[in-house]
Design goal:
This protein is of the alpha+beta class. The chain contains eight helices and nine strands.
């Protein structure tokens, strides 16, 4: 917060603007400018992007660097790809485990970086998860059977996407797919594509662009009201589905030769 406050003040003065002039140009009240510069309030995510754009600097530099006369700007890159994780804490300053139910999935796409939105999400308390940052995501559909629709996946936040391991399962938040729970098919490299695999063989694997990914959470546990049943004998329907999947895989291999 201290860096943001001092950066606003330094950049405003460097442009030769009064607090009122700056407020008029970015579309906020003058009193807010004073509150930001004196560390009495913090700009929301969307306003941070607006201010960074106004001063023609990267959002990353604006938030994380001390901007003064000695500061040298880094390439701005894509502002929308900056990873900012919003969390909430309890009265003892411990991180909460926020829950993202199905009905909130669409809202989470817009509010995942907004501390006020995250603070309003339902909370879970799981004593076995005290170290790290965790979030619960309710999944939908049958693509990850035997986990059924309505199961809550407890995910641990992955800050470095290079740590994503193939064959393990993750909750992926992306611009194209929203919130999905999938098994990973390849290591993540820069902004290249990430292969997502369903445990239900009826669903074909697919890829998403790295630049579309917003958050990645490694699955650590799940909560479900659906208790596991004994493994049933194969049915004609399940055998037919398996055969169809095998035929598609064989056809794909033949097409690559």
């Amino acid at each position: 917060m201290a860096k943001i406050s001092s950066n606003i003040k330094f950049l405003r003065k460097k442009k030769g603007l009064t607090q009122q002039q700056f407020a008029d140009q970015v579309g906020i009240k003058r009193s807010l400018v004073g509150a930001y510069e004196e560390e009495r309030a913090e700009p929301k995510y969307e306003l941070l992007k607006t201010i960074a754009l106004f001063f023609d600097i990267s959002l990353d530099d604006f938030i994380n660097e001390t901007i003064d006369d000695k500061w040298i700007a880094k390439p701005k890159g894509n502002q929308n790809n900056l990873r900012i994780l919003s969390i909430s804490v309890d009265k003892e300053d411990n991180e909460n485990i926020e829950m993202v139910p199905l009905k909130a999935s669409a809202g989470y796409m817009n509010g995942y970086a907004d501390p006020e939105y995250v603070a309003q999400l339902p909370k879970l308390y799981l004593p076995m998860f005290k170290q790290g940052t965790y979030r619960g995501f309710e999944i939908k559909g049958d693509s990850m059977l035997p986990l059924v629709s309505g199961t809550t996946i407890i995910g641990e936040y992955v800050e470095n996407w290079a740590d994503v391991k193939p064959s393990e399962t993750y909750v992926i938040l992306s611009k194209s797919d929203g919130v999905v729970y999938k098994r990973i098919g390849n290591k993540f490299k820069d902004n290249k594509k990430l292969k997502l695999i369903s445990d239900n063989p009826v669903y074909e694997p697919y890829e998403i662009n790295g630049e579309d990914i917003l958050e990645i959470w490694k699955a650590k546990a799940y909560i479900s009201t659906h208790l596991p049943l004994p493994t049933p004998e194969p049915t004609m329907e399940s055998l037919t589905s398996m055969m169809a999947q095998m035929q598609r895989s064989i056809a794909k291999l033949e097409g690559n030769n």
